[in-house]
Design a protein that fits this description.
The chain is built from six helices and nine strands. The strands form two sheets. A seven-stranded mixed β-sheet has the order 5-4-1-6-8-7-9, with helices on both faces. Strands 2-3 form a two-stranded antiparallel sheet. Strand 4, helix 2 and strand 5 form a beta-alpha-beta unit.
Amino acid sequence: MPNPPIARDAITGLILAGGRGQRMGGRDKGLQLFDGQPLAAHVLARLQPQVGTLLISANRNHAAYAALGADVVSDETQDFAGPLAGMLAGLRAAKTEYVLTAPCDSPLLPDDLAARLAAALVAPGAPDIPASADPAVDSPSAEDIPPQAAPSQTSSAPVSSPLALAAYAVTSEGPHPVFALLHRSLADDLAATLAAGEHRVRAWLARHKAVQVHFGDERPFYNVNTLDELHTDTPRAPRDSGH
């Protein structure tokens, strides 16, 4: 008998906007204008129809982010510890069973991201991450991981569950682990992982046998890395801005 689908109201959308913005000269990336609106506003508009409520993970400019229409959460530490720290803040703050994460620099993210990741979590016999996958390789969006962060030596076993507890997006160009759907029960393990010094998103997801969900189009995962890329006519930008 198939598992029941995950309802929209059971998912909190979490926009990851807590980075240093190093490739933008230290500017707060989520507040930079793209096609006339802050990057984070584009992401919020894409996520809102897919989830029951929204949070923004930010470590500065809280009032500006709150003005976009979502509650703001911050990392437990003040050292800009990377996307995993933002994920942890969201998992701690969420009042729903699931948290859907997306980076603030991806203004064209898929409008079926939640539905497809949720379907993969409840699918019978959801596949594990292939043994050949390299968990040390993360999405280009997962920036601002402290250079001193060393891989964890922890050997904790993956969580055992009749259903998968995490799923993330993959395209032909590679993995996009910060586009993930996470069960809130992962919060304590994530806190321990960060305390052990592990900051790689995909390495943590691999320990929990996160389901890879393949998307056929790379365009929705376009991410803005530099000030030049804020202009929609740059060579790297998609020809169709999606508006």
